Amino acid sequence: MSTPPPEAASLHGSATPAGPASKAASSRSRPCRRPSSSPSSDPLFSSVPPPVSAVPTGSPFYRAFLSPLCDQICLRMVPPSVCPDAISFLALCCASLATFFCWQADRHSFGASANGDAALSRGKTGAEEESEGILAFIPALSLSSVSSFLNFLGVDTQPDTPFWAVAGLLWMLYSVLDNVDGKQARRLRQCTAGGDFLDHSSDSIVTSLSGLVVMWALLQPASARRPSSSRLLSVSPAPFAAEAYPSHTISLGSLDCLAFILITQLPFFIATWAHPIVGRTILSSSLEGCHWFSVDEVNFLVIPSLLFVRALVPTFWSTALVSLLPHFPAFVHPVVTFLSAAIGIVFQLDSEEVTLGVLLIFASCMLSLVASTRLLVQLVKYDHLPRLLPGVVLFAGSLAFKPPVLLQLGVFSLLCLELIAARLKLHVRTQLYMWWPVALYYFFLFTLHGRDSGAPAGLPEAFASVLGKNYTYHSAAFMTFVLLGICLLSYKHIINRRNGTSQASRKTD
């Protein structure tokens, strides 16, 4: 258990405490309601000296705007009866709802023409077809007021416009709540190791959700009639869905999966892995802390901006680079043409299919790859490899088998959960606990890959026949999320019991 640093302060102190979300790029250390173990207390990291200089406590935007805003929200709008863990859970719900609305936007955008044709063939109107299915009915009912408000402002709304707009607002709310939970904890003096565990474990889930939101917004064309080859994220029917109410799930291709890992999961995994080495979570290539750009800008400004642009200008991110050549000076044309061709080769696209969204994804992948490689070169040593290898094996399985993203998301969160639990001294005798999510992942991959039934071989015939009807990627993902919930709650309870009562500590995310 680390001693609170000198700069750790109360809600009204000079420090600027708040928790970053899960995805992006900053490095800072802030006072937190979640204590962490000092790296010097672990024999594995005793040879690594802790940082001697204090890192910056946030970007200028965080210090000047976001932190004061969250201070006022915490003091004026959050009653003392609300526990910090409830705020953390509410933040996770906001991120999940934002992802859900992006999925609904996809269904409304790409399913409009197909559903209309199918409805006419069955003799149904569009209104009757829209009223079928719970997932289609509830969002349409709740977002009609959003469409009316946008129309009042003069915005020419598309069927998916309100979903992107609400998703952007929900992600901004998530960013605020993710900062407010730590402030509420210090306000109530409820700083627990279990709260630290819950906060960081929730971040591992939001990490993957943010990648889905970004890739949905950037890579899906605005028109349902565009050729499917221009979509980097393929959508396939869910195996458990009824034929009358088909739902969709993301099926990541090889390059899409690599891009998804690079811009979301790899940075967070390295940050979680490096935490015991440097004494704080590293969320950028810099070990000295953030300067002007941090994860707060990403979650409060960047991701919502991507969604708002997608809502208000649906064709912006799907604009091909080569179509912009008439608007560029002549000397820029060779650069744009070469860039379109090069990115097209990487993503196996024609140069006419390289859009602004594809360009932004490509740039994010390159920045993440360079930053992650730099961090690994600076920090990795032989003693650190046992905690690094599970992630390498997990990512290799994702790239080789290309499973649905829900299964990958659940197993990745389980692995990060075990890494965080090990840092908080839940597992002190062995590091093999980090391998059971990977083993479970490969069991699902080998038994489900390329099979219609997915029933593992070697089981009794009666049992295998029953299992074959229900054993799918989606049931495997469901089992993974059930395990994630059980481990999250039980580990939090055990960590709190081992660490005693609440105590003030340093913000470590």
UniProtKB/TrEMBL annotation:
Residues 1-49 are annotated as: Disordered. InterPro entries: CDP-OH_P_trans (IPR000462), CDP-OH_PTrfase_TM_dom (IPR043130), CDP_ALCOHOL_P_TRANSF_CS (IPR048254), CHOPT (IPR014472). It comes from the Eukaryota. PROSITE patterns: CDP_ALCOHOL_P_TRANSF (PS00379). Residues 13-47 have a biased composition (Low complexity). The keyword Transit peptide does not apply. Keywords: Membrane, Transferase, Transmembrane, Transmembrane helix. GO terms for cellular component: membrane. GO terms for biological process: phospholipid biosynthetic process. Pfam families: CDP-OH_P_transf. The chain crosses the membrane at residues 257-278, 298-318, 330-349, 355-377, 433-451, 471-491. GO terms for molecular function: phosphotransferase activity, for other substituted phosphate groups. Signal peptide: none annotated. It is found in: Membrane. Belongs to the CDP-alcohol phosphatidyltransferase class-I family. This is CDP-alcohol phosphatidyltransferase domain-containing protein, putative. It comes from Neospora caninum (strain Liverpool).
